[in-house]
Amino acid sequence: MDAVTVTTPPETRRELVLEAIAAGLHVIADKPFAPSAEGGRELEAAAKAKGVILSVFHNRRWDSDMRTLRKVVSDGCLGPLWRVHSRMDLDQPSTLEAGPTGGLLRDLGSHLVDQMLWLLGPVRAVDAQLDFLDLPQGRTDAGFTLTLRHESGTHSHLSASKLNRLAMRELRAYGQAGSYVASSTDVQAQSIFAGRRPTQDLSGWGFEPRTSWGILRTAAGEVEVPAEQGRYHDFYAAFAHAIHDGAAAPVTAAEDDRCSDRARRSPSERPRRALHRALAGHP
Question: What Pfam families is this protein classified in (predicted)?
Answer without folding.
Answer: GFO_IDH_MocA (PF01408), GFO_IDH_MocA_C3 (PF22725)
